[in-house]
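Contributing new records

If you add data, match the layout below exactly. Sequence lines come first and carry their own label; structure lines follow with theirs. Keep one chain per record. Anything else will be rejected by the validation script.
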Amino acid sequence: MKDNFLNYIQDSRHIAILICGAFILIGLILLIFTPYRIHSWIEDNRYFLMWLEIGLLILQSILFAGDASHWQQLYNQLSEAEKNEMHSMVEMYNFYDEKGELKLSVKPEMLYYLEAADNYVQIVYISSGKMEKLLIRNTLKNIEWRFRDKELVRCHRSFIVNIAKVQVMRRKEGEVMLDFGEEKIPLIPVSKGYGGRIMERFAK
């Protein structure tokens, strides 16, 4: 259903572009190459042509309105799973090593946190229902800058978290901790220098 929906939109756009291009081409040919008698006929019947053009514009509006309604109807028929899949295709988090080589591409909702490990960064994420860890040679500073407008927020000298996955923020033994609500994922500390930023993003 999703493929039919996307193909319908794409085919309709192509058809509209071809029709508009054809009308423009025909108009230019008539303007440049038609003999005087045809020009005279156009001049004598300009009111008829004007109303014909208005009618075509109205018809076009109706057809496009029908198309929009049809697209909306098709979209409404999609299952929630298919809609979520369509939205998730919009964005992936891509992680590169220091040489610019792509090492991991993951959906935002599958990513939990990143941890510094000497000259490497450990990425913790879910794949096929299992917790996975991947080491890439890079720095948290580079990754923080790359994802500065995303949900990945620096909370500690050694950690970046996906703030959208954090379930609870609490104080434990005098230290603020982030809890993902998963038994297999440890609590992530928040240092004082990053506390204000985390509070602001978590409140949103």
